[in-house]
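Input/output pair, single chain:
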Amino acid sequence: MEREGEKKLDMLNYMEGTVHSQKKVAEVFQYGVEKHGKNDWKKRESRLFLEAHCRHLHEILAGRIFDGESTLQHVYHAIADLLMYAEQSHQEFVNVFGMDKESDPNA
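Output:
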């Protein structure tokens, strides 16, 4: 629901200019499907994705650009891990509290 005075977010305009990065993140997801199977990530706890995200950030900060196993850049792995973390932590919230956090007026 849109609150008074807030502009509606136009996702297409907002994401303009990120097509390359979106494709690279999609390649990370494809690599994950080939390695672990489709939707295998949905069986994992959210904290595991946050830990993986931090490992990839550490590699970037250490000056290592490419993941040795996948040959894809660590930055795209980090983004994919954060997306999966967001999805899993949201689902965990729904499972525990029985409602969507975004629909809670007190959130």
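The radius of gyration is 16 Å. The chain has one domain: 19-101.
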